Each structure stands twice: as structure tokens, then as C-alpha cells.
Fold this sequence. Notes:
This protein is of the alpha+beta class. The protein contains 4 helices and 11 strands. The chain has one domain (21-135). 22% of the residues lie in helices and 23% in strands. A hairpin with a 2-residue loop joins strand 6 (99-102) and strand 7 (105-109). Helix 1 crosses helix 2 (55-61). The protein is globular, with a radius of gyration of 18 Å. Mean pLDDT is 78; it is low at 126-133 and 137-148.
Amino acid sequence: MKNSVSSCSTCGAKLEGRYEYVNKGQIATLAKFRERIINKGVNSIHLQKEIALEKSEYTNFQKLRYNGLVAHAKGNGCWLLTKRGARFLRNEIFIPKGVLIFRNRIQKYHLDRVNLLSIIKDTSPYWYTKDDYEWEAIDIIDYDLDKYDFIEFDDKGQGKLKF
């Protein structure tokens, strides 16, 4: 197994968190999702059966849950638009600019906030590239994070387990 700062010497699991940002493409997908809900009249959409999404739209859709814009609905594969998601699409609220994700769990929210118009008016690429994402190494002693309550971050963004 590869032994480096970014992987566990015991199991080889990645020890890096990544920031996820809501981008223009995800906003377009969220708007398409909202339109399908309005046309159906029910706030529960099966992503593969009830809405025509491109592969990249489908793959990135679940990232909208990090900011509470969408959530799983009853039924396998069904999603719903949250009140927060609807308010975001109406440009009524701000959300964190980014969310630090580690092992599919939110570890930290970016302090800066953005709204719909600030993302749409941004001149960044439509889809972020690998170089646009910030990566942070998570300093851990044990590879089994599920037995710990949370990770504490210092002012530089370095994560440490809190025992």
C-alpha cells in the first residue's frame, strides 16, 4: 500500500478532504429539477426515471445536498427540493461558498457566503476543473473515523481528531 501523507499506512484510504462548491452547472440542474417538480405537481422526483439529466448533471446532483438544497425523498432514487433550495433559486438566501467533505461527511463550512446571482455572475469556468478545488490533508492516528464524533480544524484548515 502507498504510504504518504494523503493515505493511511494501514489500509491505504485517502486522508484528504475536498471542498465542494455550488457552481453554475449545478444551479442549472437545480432549476431543471424545480421545473420538473412544478410540472409533476409532487415534490418527489426519481432522477433516472422522471427527469432527463446529462451524465454530468446526474453525477453532480447529489452534491447539492451538502448545502441542504435537495434531500432524499421517500422511494428509492427519489429526491425533493427543500425550502432552502427553493429560496436559494429565488436568490433569497446565502449559502457557504464551499463545504469541506471527508468520507462523505461535512467537516467544515467555508466562512464566505454566496447567493444565486453571485455564482451566476462569476466568470469562473462553467464546470470546475481539478485545479480549482482546494485539498486539505486530514491528520489522523486511526483510519477508522466512524468511531469518532468529529474532526477539529485549526486556523490553517488542518484537521485533527478530537478524542
